[in-house]
């Protein structure tokens, strides 16, 4: 089914002042809630990226998410809620004390938890798993939509599957126009990378996907070092999105390289006529790249939050240009750098290792 996709923009002042009650009275939110209640899909901003939402309990509605995105059905969805009381409705059994402690600190916000699911949740929402991923977003537009619709909303990123996640409404429109009825334009997403997904393993929290809440922040709250599960899932359904398929990839080939090896890359790119370097300000100032190569600054190594904020937008902009190779400088995999590098590793064709 083809749609004449609407894009409805919200008052930026209502967003910046976190005025959820007034946002619920806006036409864009009312229209979005109505469509969700009718079993349709709606794109909307969260603090991480734009999501493509549908009623998580309505299997026919959830199928429309997979159809619009071209998403594999063994890739589970994250269910978004606006009230902690919904967590008890969606889950089956007790929530571990450590998870409750993290919820108290990081909800609403970019933290997703994996819990045993209630039988009311259809298998298509969870990739046939007996667990469900749940989070409470902090973006006022997302919360207003959740509250007005009175639904738990299953929502992966609102992009064509595998392509860089959308952090602006125009990214969603570029990927999904004619495929969905409505895009709610709430400006650029503030975090820029998806939520952190956690699970309980041997009574301890482990991170399945690094994201907007860092492993260091989780460890500080829990009082022990949280581990990162970097397992690859090839023949089975992963417990979290972002663990099986190639994701976040521009159509232009992308490779990663260590900062100290950039000046030795010439032999590796001789088959490309117009490469572009996406590098930090510090590396750009070091003047180690030949003057005839294109250079785009991704931000400072001292401000990883800004790099995360800009990352997907920059990848999309470079993809629209006429470059034939994107070369991205690796960042330290600590703090938010771990989430950034997780996205870049999954987006890349390969890392370049130069002796």
Portion in strands: 15-25%
Distance between the termini: 53 Å
Q: Uncertain spans, ≥5 residues at pLDDT below 50?
A: none
Rg: 20 Å
Write the CATH homologous superfamily of the largest domain.
DHBP synthase
Order of helices and strands: EHHHEEHEHHEHEHEHEEEHEEEHEHEHE
List keywords for this structure.
355 residues; alpha/beta; DHBP synthase; Rossmann fold; 2 domains; 11-stranded mixed β-sheet; 5-stranded parallel β-sheet; 13 helices; 31% helix
Characterization of this structure:
The protein is an alpha/beta fold and 355 residues long. The chain has two domains: 6-228, DHBP synthase (Alpha-Beta Complex), CATH 3.90.870.10; 254-352, Rossmann fold. Helices cover 31% and strands 20% of the residues. The protein has 13 helices and 16 strands. The chain has helices spanning 12-16, 20-23, 27-37, 59-69, 85-90, 97-106, 123-126, 140-149, 169-176, 215-222, 281-285, 304-320, 336-347; strands spanning 6-9, 42-45, 50-55, 78-80, 111-116, 131-135, 153-154, 182-185, 196-201, 204-209, 227-228, 254-257, 275-280, 294-299, 325-329, 350-352. It has an eleven-stranded mixed sheet, sandwiched between helices. Strand 10 (204-209), helix 10 and strand 11 form a beta-alpha-beta unit. Helix 3 (27-37) crosses helix 8 (140-149) and helix 12 runs parallel beside helix 13.
């Amino acid at each position: 089914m083809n749609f004449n996709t609407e894009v409805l923009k919200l008052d930026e002042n209502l967003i910046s002042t976190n005025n959820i009650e007034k946002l619920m009275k806006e036409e864009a939110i009312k229209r979005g809630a109505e469509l969700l209640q009718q079993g349709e899909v709606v794109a909307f901003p969260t603090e991480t990226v734009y999501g493509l939402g549908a009623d998580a309990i309505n299997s026919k509605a959830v199928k429309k998410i997979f159809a619009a995105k071209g998403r594999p059905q063994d890739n589970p969805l994250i269910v978004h809620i606006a009230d902690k009381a919904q967590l008890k409705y969606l889950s089956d059994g007790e929530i571990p004390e450590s998870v409750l402690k993290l919820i108290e600190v990081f909800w609403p916000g970019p933290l997703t938890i994996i819990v045993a699911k209630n039988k009311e949740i259809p298998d298509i929402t969870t990739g046939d798993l007996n667990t469900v991923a749940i989070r409470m977003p902090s973006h006022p537009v997302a919360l207003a939509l959740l509250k007005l619709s009175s639904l738990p909303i299953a929502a992966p990123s609102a992009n064509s599957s595998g392509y860089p996640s959308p952090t602006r409404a125009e990214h969603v429109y570029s990927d999904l126009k004619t495929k969905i009825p409505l895009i709610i334009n709430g400006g650029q997403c503030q975090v820029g990378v998806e939520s952190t997904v956690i699970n309980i393993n041997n009574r301890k929290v482990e991170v399945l996907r690094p994201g907007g809440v860092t492993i260091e922040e989780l460890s500080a709250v829990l009082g022990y070092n949280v581990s990162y599960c970097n397992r690859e899932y090839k023949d089975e359904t992963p417990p979290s999105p972002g663990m099986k398929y190639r994701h976040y990839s521009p159509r232009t080939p992308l490779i990663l390289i260590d900062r100290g090896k950039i000046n030795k890359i010439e032999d590796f790119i001789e088959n490309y006529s117009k490469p572009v370097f996406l590098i930090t300000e510090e590396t750009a100032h070091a003047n180690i790249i030949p003057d005839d190569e294109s250079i785009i600054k991704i931000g400072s190594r001292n401000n990883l939050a800004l790099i995360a904020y800009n990352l997907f937008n920059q990848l999309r902009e470079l993809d629209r240009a006429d470059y034939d190779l994107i070369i991205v400088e690796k960042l330290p995999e600590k703090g938010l750098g771990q989430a950034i590098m997780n996205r870049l590793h999954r987006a890349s064709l390969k890392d370049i290792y130069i002796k």
